[in-house]
Write a structure and sequence with these properties.
Length: 204
């Protein structure tokens, strides 16, 4: 017997801000709502997947009003749906706006946690938009059902590893190694014992 997934409730709100994980933040019925895939100023319909007394965790399902800061993600594995890569969270935001969002999150944290405000805010430093992450921990798993070895980041909200063959945030030379690494590990007798690969490299 196949059991159909229970339909989740959907609600419509206007997003107020972003949190430190790149999720849209809104309020409904006295609770804070965290919405993956939503941006400030957007009116969205969301589907909640966790309902707590003081907050909800949810996914944006319909975009009714689009933010001018929204862009098309470069990476084919980015998204909020099941199976999407969880390696990054802000590819749907214009790059310079990403830096502004992170700066605001820092300012808010300084105030809400430490009750301090900086006397002077130095303009942020902008680095590369892509292939900037020089340290990472890639998970490894031998998936017998698929007849392959997966190397990459975990899927969003999951212990599974994303079936990715490239990465837009890792250095290009490391991204190009993902498929060869899968093949290399698959040829080893200890492939089931390898849990992760640590990446650490310089800009050169």
């Amino acid at each position: 017997m196949v059991r159909a997934r229970k339909e989740r409730e959907k609600f419509t709100v206007i997003v107020e801000t972003l949190d430190q994980e790149g999720r849209g933040v809104s309020h409904r019925d006295g609770k804070v709502v965290f919405i993956e895939g939503a941006l400030p100023g957007e009116e969205v319909t969301y589907e909640r997947y966790r309902n707590k007394p003081s907050f909800e965790l949810s996914l944006a399902t319909d975009l009714l009003t689009e933010s001018p800061l929204r862009v098309t993600p470069k990476c084919p594995y980015f998204g909020v749906k099941d199976g999407s890569c969880g390696g990054c969270a802000m590819q749907h935001i214009e790059p310079r706006a990403q830096v502004a969002v992170k700066q605001k999150v820092l300012m808010d944290a300084l105030w809400h946690i430490g009750r301090v405000r900086p006397e002077q805010v130095i303009p942020p430093i902008f680095g590369l938009t892509w292939h900037y992450r020089h340290r990472a921990r890639l998970s490894v798993r031998d998936v017998a059902k698929k007849g392959t070895v997966l190397v990459g980041f975990h899927e969003k909200r999951s212990s599974y590893i994303a079936d990715m063959k490239s990465c837009e945030i890792l250095p290009k030379k490391v991204s190009n190694l993902l498929v060869p690494l899968r093949d290399l590990i698959a040829s080893l007798t200890i492939r089931q014992k390898l849990a992760q690969i640590e990446v650490a490299c310089t800009e050169d």
